[in-house]
Amino acid sequence: MLAALFEILLFLMMVPALIVFALFKIASDIADYFGFWLFPGIFGLWLGINLSMVAPSDPNVPFESLIEVIAHSHIAGFATPQVLFVIGVLSLLVPPACSMFKLMFRATRDAK
Fold it and tell me: So where does this one cross the membrane (predicted)?
């Protein structure tokens, strides 16, 4: 009985530890693959989505918050949330594109 209780306690302690280890390992692999590009990609996606949900302020209010000003401003004629979303997507596409070009140019270099 005591051995079974010990095994259950060991199982209850090891499973969460293994899950946390697996999550950190996955996060480490993702960070190794994307490198610096992960932060602007996630930040651009997150900020673009959140700013697109900001409603316009009431016309009777004498001021707007900084978030409302940023959400309703434009960069080069495009709405800021859409620009940030596109920058986020492009930032996350850079590492796969670079690895694709490395493979492509390695194949042409080996053929010569």
Answer: 6-24, 36-55, 75-94
